[in-house]
Amino acid sequence: MEASNDTLRGRRIVFVCGEDEYESERTMPLLAEEARKYGAWTTVLQADPDPASPVSIPGLEALRTADLAVFYIRFRQLPEEQFGHIRDYLASGKPVVGLRTSTHAFQYPQDHPLAEWNDGFGIDVLGAPWIRHFGHSSSTSVSVAWGAEPHPILRGVPTHFECRSWLYQVLPYPPEGAQILLNGATVNPEDNGWSYTSETPRVQPVVWTRTRAGGGRVFTTTMGHPEDFELSAFRRLLINGMHWALELERRIPEQDPLKQEIEGGEQR
User: Fold this and answer.
1) How many domains does one find in the chain?
2) CB atoms within 10 A of CB 179
3) What is the pTM of this model?
4) What percent of the chain has pLDDT over 70?
């Protein structure tokens, strides 16, 4: 199949961005542009007035008509009128794609009515909360999980690649019923005395799928450093994951659909 095919034609995908560490305000619009090459209608929502502002993501009412929501958010404190659109979308049973910091999407004060979502979004929606990582100077060696090779999301994805994202601890998550597709092994973890312990496994899930109790497919990856988007393997993985979440796995292209390289910018 050519990259100009219509495998996502007519699907409305809303990208919800809001974090100040990994430049999702730059990478998600480029991913949305690639989805449009497959016929998707896309909307990109970003934190306002800047990525560091945790209190507003205008336009979340777009989720009302979305077929798929892609989240790349971190430590948000959205007002109820905005958060309500996310809650309603999740209650609808529609699919979700979550990247990296979305495991810790919200950070409300403990006495706030929405504080349960601080861990709840990660655990109940994506399948894992924030625990810890192996240090900012480390990287990750990614390999296909045992028995996962036939999964359609891995079509065209190499069995092994290296990525810049430092490894997140996920275990003992994701929950029973999730399927782990890719594992990551930490490379040169920092010996900083706080981010992990000697008992922390050096291999952790980095990609998995699940179906939420209320319905709706979920594709989660703890990768998402801006340099990861320069990897054809990672870009391919995301496009495949969106197809699968929309129950379009039979349409997943055979060849690498993403040719555009992301240039410029340094991690803040």
Assistant:
1) 1
2) 16
3) 0.92
4) 92
